[in-house]
Design brief:
- It is a single chain.
- By secondary structure, the protein is α/β, with parallel strands linked by helices.
- Helix content is 38%, strand content 16%.
- The chain is built from six helices and seven strands; from the N terminus they run H-E-E-H-E-H-E-H-E-H-E-E-H.
- The chain has a three-stranded mixed sheet with strand order 1-2-4. The protein has a two-stranded parallel ribbon with strand order 3-5. The chain has a two-stranded antiparallel sheet with strand order 6-7.
- Strand 6 and strand 7 form a beta hairpin.
- The longest helix has 17 residues, at 78-94.
- The termini are far apart.
- 33% of the residues are buried.
């Protein structure tokens, strides 16, 4: 049997299903209450991330809330959004467009930089510093220094 080559991130991004809103009638856990849940797509995540201007950041919950509003949902699935963000980052690298898709502007709710992006938090810290965003290292993790000042609203 011939071995199957792994899909590229570009293929994963471009061939993913369109965003879907699913209605949950019962809670499926604390992150999945009853309501209209959006399962976004890598391209929808990429489009939303592209709206974050240089020198600003968006927290993952803010990103999910913006996506939910855009597609008429109550909330966005946190797991798939994280997966799609990584796919978008990896696809940008594959296309040599890593500087054009500002995934480094997405941070955790508490301002922590993300471990799962290509290059890790060190690369994300360098990109944010280059845009004038103050980041600090606390123990073994990087954080945006003044999250309230640089985070997007709404």
């Amino acid at each position: 049997m011939p071995s199957r080559s792994p899909q590229t991130a570009v293929h994963k991004r471009d061939s993913a299903a369109q965003p879907q809103v699913k209605t949950l009638t019962d809670a499926k856990g604390s992150n999945y209450p009853p309501g209209r849940m959006l399962i976004a797509s890598p391209l929808a995540v990429q489009d939303e991330v592209a709206t974050v201007p240089a020198g600003r950041v968006i927290t993952a919950p803010q990103l999910r809330a913006r996506l939910a509003r855009r597609f008429g949902a109550d909330y966005t699935c946190p797991i798939t959004t994280g997966i799609f963000l990584r796919i978008v980052a990896e696809a940008a690298l594959e296309e040599a467009r890593a500087g054009e898709v500002p995934v480094w502007r997405v941070v955790s709710e508490n301002g922590a930089l993300l471990d799962k992006l290509p290059g890790g938090p060190e690369r994300q810290a360098a990109r944010l510093k280059a845009e004038g965003v103050a980041v600090v290292r606390r123990r073994s993790r990087w954080f945006v220094d003044d999250l309230a000042h640089v985070a997007m609203t709404g």
